[in-house]
Amino acid sequence: MRQALTAALLLMSAPAFAQERKPPAMAPSQKQPDTFLRQYAETRRFQSGRPVGVRITPDEQSVLFLRTSPTSNVQTLYAFDVASGQARELLTPEALLKGAEETLSSEEKARRERMRVSARGFTSYGLSEDGTRLLVPLSGRLYVVDRATGKSTEVKTGPGVIDPRLSPDGKQVAYVRGHDVYRVDLVANQEKAVTKGGTAEKTHGLAEFVAQEEMSRFSGYWWSPDAKSIAYTESDTSEVEKLTIVDVMHPEKGGEVFPYPRPGKANAKVRLGVTPVSGGKTVWAQWDAQKYPYLATVKWDKGGPLTLVVQNRLQTEEQVLAVDPATGKTRVLLTEQDKAWVELNQDFPLWLEDGSGFLWYTERNDGPEVELRKATGELDRSVVKPSAGFRNLARFVQSDKTLFFSGDPNPTESHLWRVKAGGTPEEVATGSTGPGVEAGMVSKNGGLVVLSTQGPKSMPRTLIFKGDGTKLGELPEVAQEPGFTPNFEVRQVGPKKFWTSLVKPRDFKPGTKLPVIVEVYAGPTTTVVHQSMAAHLLSQWMADKGFLVVKVDGRGTPLRTAEWNRVVKHDFATITLDDQIEAVQALAKEVPELDLKRVGITGWSFGGYMAALAVLKRPDFFKAAVSGAPVVDWRDYDTHYTERYLGLPEETPQAYEVSSLLTYAKKDSPIGALLLLHGTADDNVYFFHTLKLSDALFRAGKPHQLLPLSGLTHMVPDPLVTERQYERVIAHFQQTLK
């Protein structure tokens, strides 16, 4: 449900009466394929062929990156030479596999699903701190590449390697295999176990489900700065409820079982141990796990102690702890509290290399703020004020204590900024003008900046600059470009100043009323209104079918104030939906072509929940909906996400009742035309969510449609399925709104 990047911002809805009606016409299979939709699907939303996974070498002479071909999801490794401005291919998956097929373990597939990774080939790689070696995982095996010679050597591991990482000195590699942590000394190239006794229910070195899905903690082990020890998690899921996913097209294969903690039920029991890499006794970190059961963050930075962030179950309180690796004893550096919930940011705490203190992220003062704390945890001063619009840390340059970050006071934009403690943030000069969405990467010493930039009329590009803003080049891309530029505008509307975007057909005729499609997410982790061409391509395709397409960021979404974000505490179904309606009505006062008698709504995940909620609760306004992978009953979603916002079911049952779609499905009232879409293999929002809603609607005599996506998970990476999905979406709206 998280990120972005990544959260799915998708689509779907019909008339507000309950009698039987004719289903939307299906598109004939013989018809000519939609050129844009086919291209959109085959190019992974026009992102294939663009650089990703960018890393700057320590000497600032090269920029490494991954890239696919224009219509492929198989990534290859490249190097860009800063001096010459030329890029060359370093390594291909084909060269390492030598004709063999790439295979992934079920654990690796699940981990990639949590990270929203749909690519194959090289999906990640490691770079040693001195820049001389690359670590490349592929198909459950590991390869070390000498950058000077280009020679690749396979690391002698057992099968099924997960989460491999080089040691800080670059001489060893650690990874998880068979539920335990292993390491290989690269000179001897011999595998040795670091932990022992791991099982499927008591894993060593792997992040548990909610850590990956909701905390953005994707790892379960950490090297010490001197490379002599490893800290690792032991995650005991023996008491966690198990859910089973069956491939409905192949029931003979049996089911795959996953530990999945639902609200009010048992979580994984997680503890942290420290052990010498050469083997020996594990020392377990000691903290009040009864009060703080969540191990949210682990950092072992150069200059700082082994540091943990632990949370209470309701996430209203967390502590920052320093651990003594020799004894396991901890001391409290900081306690953070919030009546609603505390936000996590995995970049923090970040220790200064001289050990004098650490940087910390907080929303204590009604917005995102970065503080400098002394080594004792005492506040030194604020580095980035809430008004600056901090989003993500790009780099903290230790030598001159300059912090680079991406963000902006305007939530529809993002730019790269730098600030020194006690100073005022200044935008890093890159020569760009006008609105846009930028994210930066900065070299360790601050002399090189890699900027990913896009705007309302430009697709993503990756530019290289000196620290002073001098442009040095651009990472080459081979992406196909869209055949049009979206016709959209971003504006604030209404007394609450909602941010909205409006996409008009390219043949728009002023004065002509058009039906409306609202693309919704509205959840507390993601916004949808961005000054981005890429974010509006599919919206333009829908608009060109004869619609006005609207996006709204109402209260409950992030990037405004903490108070704005936290209004959804104990209620997902009231303010979130009211604000969508209020914003569309306010927009219609400025754009009278919006036909408020013909409004549809579509979304995926939390957006799917909102789309279904709209036609169940307010069919007077929303006549049609397409709901993708909706959370139907929040008692069936995971603990860490749901309890953060709605509390424990036994303590706040009314929050779950008012937020459940089943509450509205069972009411004796009409609904709008509803189309439900859901992947049958979804291990995030399980398929049974949609089945429960369909069953409740059926029993209540409320017609609707259900389209299962066979074998698909919460992501839909299959180009053909993507194409067919949106054909069905637009057909539904054409039938019900036009």
Automatic annotation (TrEMBL):
Highest taxon, organism lineage: Bacteria
Domain annotation Peptidase S9 prolyl oligopeptidase catalytic: ranges: 539-738
Signal peptide: 1-18
Keywords from the named record: Signal
Pfam hit, one: Peptidase_S9
The UniProt record lists the keyword Signal: yes
Biological process per Gene Ontology, one example term: proteolysis
A single MF term (Gene Ontology): dipeptidyl-peptidase activity
Domain Dipeptidylpeptidase IV N-terminal: residue ranges: 137-459
Protein name (database record): S9 family peptidase
